[in-house]
Design goal:
Blueprint (H helix, E strand, L loop, with lengths): L2 H18 L11 E6 L10 E6 L4 E7 L7 E12 L2 E6 L6 E9 L2 E8 L11 E7 L2
Antiparallel strand pairs: 1-2, 1-8, 2-3, 3-4, 4-5, 5-6, 6-7, 7-8
Length: 136
């Protein structure tokens, strides 16, 4: 087998491996529409959000600067997965995923603790919040 063919096969393998790194979410309880917010008196500045996580491992999130969710700060989308009991969110265009330890309070409420983030994140502190399932 020639060097060009081996190089092409190796490149195809790497591409498929990176694609399948976020191929499927592994905790279906997290699928759906959720909302939450950071404490107004917490380690990080206040922010509220609405998030949709789909069964194909994609997410979309809208951030708000007020509790009434009128002031949109921005929107993001990307891929999510659960691995080793941690929720990982890889936002499109951001090289490092945000990682959260999570615990379900009940089927419609989940407590998340941020333990890793990209250096470009708006808050570098570890913080906790509770997301609540919403119907849409």
């Amino acid at each position: 087998m020639g060097l060009k063919i081996r190089t092409s096969l190796f490149a195809a393998f790497l591409l498929s491996a990176s694609f399948f790194a976020f191929a499927e979410p592994t905790d279906t309880r997290l699928i759906g529409n959720w909302q939450g917010q950071r404490d107004q008196e917490g380690k990080c500045s206040f922010m509220a959000w609405k998030m949709a996580r789909t069964a194909d491992g994609k997410f979309e999130i809208t951030f708000y600067g007020d509790p009434g969710k009128k002031q949109i700060l921005g929107k993001e989308k990307g891929r999510w997965e659960v691995k080793d009991g941690k929720l990982s969110l890889l936002t499109d265009g951001v090289p490092t995923p945000d990682i959260y330890i999570y615990t379900f309070i009940d089927e419609n409420s989940v407590k998340l603790s941020n333990v890793k983030r990209d250096p470009s994140a708006d808050c570098m502190a570890d913080y906790e919040f509770t997301d609540h399932r919403v119907s849409q």
